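ok here's the first one, seq then struct tokens
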Amino acid sequence: MARLFDADSTLKRLRNRYRLVVMNDDTYEEVVTFKLSRLSVYITLSTIFVLLVGLTVALITFTNLKYYLPGYGSQSQRKELMFYKTKIDSLERSMLYKDQYLESLKKVLSGDVKSTVDTAILKIPEVEKSTQ
């Protein structure tokens, strides 16, 4: 069991050379012959995958295809969205203030307001009368 997970044996299996032969089925003539290893196939496929992903991302990023993606809009639409968002926030705030005002007014008109007396003593200086 330890032999199966040995790093040297894994590396040897990756570097073993194989021959891929493409033959004509009618004449059994070799058309193309490739000498491959598992490592070279892995590296080649990984490189092709990275290049395809990179090209796809570049194509979407640098062309107008990005506007067809869901959730991506134009710059003017974003500015308009931010404008309306701030407008809605200010309207909500003003509605909240108006609701609070109306609730306070209802309480005053119905007499549910607790009267609070200001108990702070103010010392008002007396005005001196000048004699002429």
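and now the second one, same deal
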Amino acid sequence: MPRGGNRENILNAKNYLEKEELVAIPTETVYGLAANALNPIAVAKIFEAKERPTFDPLIVHTHSLHEVYKFVTNIHPALLKLAEAFWPGPLTLLLLKRDHS
């Protein structure tokens, strides 16, 4: 897929993700391999493609702080204040995941 964040490329990426496929995306430092975090088949493809052990957790990125609640059990109020102050930006929070099985 061509580089860049134009509308056509974003729609192409969206279509791949909806088909349980993987997409390479640029991050702050490297290219990342993306999949739909709520789709077990797509997530398994990341582990397979990277030959990553299944006990090694993946990072989940979202478009908003509100979306984080789909993936975690709760956010401590102090961590919520940090997220509100520094997101979007280079702040990583480690949170307990919500069960999606």
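notes on #2: The two ends are 32 Å apart (CA to CA). The first strand starts at residue 23 and ends at 26.
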